[in-house]
């Protein structure tokens, strides 16, 4: 599961480091993301925290921001199924 979640984060690549660097860039966030996979709202908050930790902003009123996060959540939750 760790590698699958890491792959989703790597593909998301919010800071745009590109592959293959993205495969190691987000590894530190994977354990927390996995621990939140049973609660969609906590998972969403964790992903927003990932963005904020990287100095990026998240605006819940921005449709593209919201859509982006929801797509990442969908991919992560599909791993659990």
Provide a brief overview of the structure.
The protein is mostly helical and 81 residues long. It is built from five helices and no strands.
Element string (H = helix, E = strand): HHHHH
Mean pLDDT: 94
Sequence stretches where pLDDT stays below 50 over 5 or more residues: none
Rg from C-alpha positions? 12 Å
- Our measurement of the CA-to-CA distance between the termini, rounded to an integer number of angstroms, reads 11 Å
By DSSP, the count of extended strands is: 0
Largest sheet: none
List keywords for this structure.
single chain, 81 residues, mainly alpha, 5 helices, 65% helix, 0% strand, globular
Describe this structure in words.
This protein has 81 residues and is mostly helical. 65% of the residues lie in helices and 0% in strands. The chain has 5 helices and no strands. The chain is globular, with a radius of gyration of 12 Å.
């Amino acid at each position: 599961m760790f590698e699958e979640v890491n792959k989703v984060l790597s593909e998301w690549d919010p800071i745009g480091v590109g592959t293959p660097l993205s495969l190691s860039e987000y590894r530190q966030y994977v354990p927390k993301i996995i621990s939140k996979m049973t609660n969609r709202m906590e998972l969403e908050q964790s992903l927003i925290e990932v963005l904020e930790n990287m100095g990026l902003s998240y605006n819940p009123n921005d449709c593209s921001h919201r859509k982006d996060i929801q797509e990442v959540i969908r991919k992560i939750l599909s791993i659990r199924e």
